[in-house]
Each structure stands twice: as C-alpha cells, then as structure tokens.
Write a structure and sequence with these properties.
The chain has 275 residues and is of the alpha+beta class. 20% of the residues lie in helices and 36% in strands.
C-alpha cells in the first residue's frame, strides 16, 4: 500500500509546506552557480528553427469549461515574462524562475491541477499547458534538457489527435521545474502568443544551420499492471539535412510510461504486463 504524504493526512499543512519548499527551491538556484535567463530582446532573432501550436480549450476533462477559460487567463499572464526571452550561451532557462512574478499585477484564477495524485482546481492551474509547449519547442533544438518531469497519469485525452505522446513536462513551483541549458555558441529566443483557439510557440536562433530536428513517436503500446492501464512510447529525434531533406541520424531520447486515467477507444490492444 502506498504511504500517504503528511499533507494528505493533514491538508491544512499544505500552504506552510509550499512556502517552505519555495524558499529552499529558489535558495538552491541562487547558489547553484548557473546563469539563468533574464534578458529579453524586443526584436526577434533572424532564423526561426521551429514553430508549433496547441489548442487551448479541452472539452474532455469532465470539469466545468469555466476552468478551461480560467486556464487561458492564467496562460496569458505566464506567457508575458517568457515571450521574447533570450537563452544565450551557457545560460539556463528555468520555467519556474521565469514565470515567478507573472501574477504581480493580476492574480491567477482557478484551473485544473494534480495535487496529491488527484485532479483538482487550484489558483494558477493549467500552466503545464505552457511548460508542455516549451518542452516540445526545446526538443527541436540542441539545448540540453536539465530537468523535466512527466505527468504520472494522463487524466483525459488530448483535444488534438495529432499531438505526440510522451512529450509533456509538468511543473510545480517549489517541487518540479522545466530547465534547459545552452551549451552551444548560439543564442536562442522564445516567442509565445495566444490568438483565437490556439497558443503558438516559435523558437529562433542567431545563426543559420544546415539541419533541423523532427521529433516522432516509436513503438507505442498499452499494457495493464495491478489493474491499471499504462501507455508506453519511445520519443525519438531525427536530424534532417535541410537541403536534401534526408534523415542524417535518428536517436531515442527516452521512453515514457504514463498511467491512463480514462477509457481508451473500443478495440485498443492492451497487453498484460508480467512482473
């Protein structure tokens, strides 16, 4: 039987625990000798190396749609400090540090978030939509992923059937962050915008390169273990020559395993996982 956390036994301690974790969290970053991104540039760098978009509203959550509308409000606050941010050589991007003061003028609204392994509504819920988008952008660059945490459970299906699996990045200030480090001699720049039903992301660089990256899924499967259903999928990255459009190389970045918290379509093949 899984041992319960102290904040699950005594929920009133959670606000105190959050304050404690945030103090330790940012103190470690202050002393870890990394140079974190803080500089914005009003003009975009000359070369766009990847762009993407994601649908904002998800009607498959099982919750009132007002929480999806609140999520969009929260995302508008969080994208402002990230938009036009530069990641210069030897700098590290931290999601939590970048959006730390996003609500200094307006407070976040209640959105969906996983707390103590349960999907609930909390102020600032839904910011993982932005961290997911950023992680997807970063996978199409030579930036080094320093810290990334997958969701342990997928509570509802994505509204976009073409969205790749296993490329999410959950964040929780004080506990979980998304960090990438620039070990190249290039400068990168993030652009995030919200327009209509989509959030758009682009990443720019100051020097043109003769190749691009494409991230794809391989070997996707479902299996049951201890009465629960899981998805296993490999996330691979191809390096493609821009002129010839030929694949230069392909590497498995990682294999993601995630519990599925909703009913899969009828007829989906689900294997039995043996111990």
């Amino acid at each position: 039987m899984k041992r319960k956390k102290i904040t699950q036994l005594f929920p009133f301690l959670l606000p105190i625990r959050r304050i404690q974790r945030k103090i330790i969290f940012y103190a470690k970053m202050y002393f870890d000798r990394n140079r974190y991104t803080k500089t914005k540039a009003p003009e975009l760098l000359p070369f766009c190396i990847y762009e993407t978009k994601s649908m904002l509203l998800n009607e498959n959550t099982g919750f009132d749609m007002k929480y999806q509308v609140n999520k969009v409000f929260n995302l508008r606050l969080a994208t402002e400090p990230v938009n036009k941010l530069l990641i210069r050589p030897q700098e590290t991007f931290s999601f939590c540090q970048s959006v730390r003061y996003a609500e200094k003028n307006e407070r976040y609204k209640d959105g969906l978030c996983v707390v103590n392994d349960e999907l609930v509504t909390v102020p600032g819920g839904g910011l993982c939509h932005l961290s997911n988008l950023l992680f997807w952008l970063f996978l199409h660059t030579p930036l080094i992923i320093v810290e990334r945490h997958p969701h342990q459970i997928k509570d509802f299906p994505s509204p976009d059937e073409d969205e790749p699996d296993g490329v999410d990045a959950t964040v929780s200030e004080g506990w979980l962050d998304l960090k990438v480090k620039n070990n190249t001699n290039l400068t990168f720049q993030i652009e995030i915008s919200i327009d209509g039903p989509y959030i758009y992301g682009r990443i720019f660089v100051d020097q043109a390169k003769g190749y691009r990256y494409e991230v794809i899924n391989r070997d996707k499967s479902f299996f049951k273990k201890d009465g629960k259903t899981f998805e296993r999928v490999s996330v691979c990255r191809q390096e493609i020559d821009i002129k010839s459009k030929q694949v230069i190389s392909e590497n498995i970045l990682y294999t993601d395993v995630c519990e599925i918290g909703y009913l899969l379509p009828e007829g989906t093949a689900i294997a039995e996982e043996k111990e």
